[in-house]
Amino acid sequence: MPTLLIVDDEPSILLAFRRAFGGAAVDVVTAETGAEGLELARRRRPDVVLLDIHLPDLNGLEMLRRLRELDARCPVIFITGRSTTDSAIEAMKLGAYEYLLKPLELPQLRQVVERALAISRLMHVPAVVAPDELVDDRADAVLGRCPAMQEVYKAIGRVAAQDVPVLITGETGTGKELIARALYQHSRRANAAFLAINCAAIPEHLLESELFGHEKGAFTGADRKRIGKFEQCSGGTLFLDEVGDMTPVTQSKVLRLLQEQRFERLGGNETIQTDVRVLAATNHNLEAAVADGRFRQDLYYRLGVFTIHLPPLRARDDDLALLVKHYVRRFSRELGKDVQGVAPEAMGVLRRYPWPGNVRELQSVLKQALLQAAGPVLLAEFLPPLHPVEPLADTAPPDTALESFINEQLKAGTDDLYAEVLRRVDRLLLTRVLRHTNGNQLQAAKLLGITRGSLRTKLRELGIRIDRSISGGEEER
């Protein structure tokens, strides 16, 4: 159970926090002074700290410095009713995770604390790299005996301690974040901060601000200065997931940071020096993106100083049985089940499936099956329906057939030729672009220069189907 330390000199605030988080799966401990909070931090090693900036015996900024000396990986969230711009900026520069103003909205506070707990877990829970099953099932493990995975282990060993960028490639769901965490935890920066940013999950106009920060008035809604992740994470490691989704402007700024470890906030002129190791991951073919002009070649070379490629699950020989055994054991414990093995028929079903969603999809399928399971053996009937993904239907005519199609329609005496040709061209264009993006509608919409909603409307109108496997509640990463 994670521990949440709350340091505030207002008893009513402490009571409100106990009520807010006491019923959750969190161990809440509280202190009314800085000295008491530091003593609790030494003894309890909390996963997240909520800290008032104005304490009776110690300034909150000074307490943050001391907390970071104890454990720089522990996210600290400031809460205050008397904020100044300078104190907020200084707190974030010192590495605070977030800075919140009283009165606090409970849903917002819960959301921030949950994110901080997730970040804390990434830094503290080991990402074990092991070729066999002799690993604690409570750890996040990268397992596999196949030759391709053996190369991955050797690559991690070669580069983890070297302070250079690493590019991790592989299909969605192959475990790229786990590799990034293993690199971080075996690096010389293992006692400093580790932050992860999903470049595809943040709107384009906000990603630059999230990474580099912004000055007050830099854009509409920028009502105060913001410290970005490259500044906040100085001394630590920043993981850029789905780096292929960055805009050209953001790419150029990341390139400069990798070259010089310097940058300017959005809308500012002050040059800021930082010290961040960058790990990046993508499920795109960056070489093809470079050839198409969608990704900077110089940035590709900078990020790919050392590249680790993760093989898809379907290419990992007999690793499936090893992974199934590990995750059945792990998820059985988490879900309160007593499943000890997998029936041969169920294992046969799992072996015949091509796993387009890779290890993440396997985890989702096993969790669903265990929720249905009764008894000590996982039977085939407990598995959810598994349908191999069909290739995107090529219902469009080839380019050379378009003129023939027009001639046929003219001979038939059509009275709607313009609409029919446009429909035919749309079908050709959309299927070609979607095949290029492996069915990723978000990327296809970007290439087409239309919104995702417009693309979906077109697909419905044209009757184009995309059979994709969606696991873990995430679509088209």
Notable characteristics:
alpha/beta; 5-stranded parallel sheet; Rossmann fold; 477 residues; globular; Helicase, Ruva Protein, domain 3
Brief description of this entry?
The chain is α/β, with parallel strands linked by helices. Helices cover 45% and strands 14% of the residues.
Account of the protein in words:
The protein is α/β, with parallel strands linked by helices. The chain folds into four domains: 3-122, Response regulator (Rossmann fold); 127-309, Rossmann fold, CATH 3.40.50.300; 313-382, Helicase, Ruva Protein, domain 3; 401-462, Homeodomain-like (Arc Repressor Mutant, subunit A, Orthogonal Bundle), CATH 1.10.10. It is built from 19 helices and 18 strands. Strands 2-1-3-4-5 form a five-stranded parallel beta sheet, with helices on both faces. It has a five-stranded parallel beta sheet with strand order 9-12-15-8-16. The longest helix has 20 residues, at 417-436. The chain is globular.
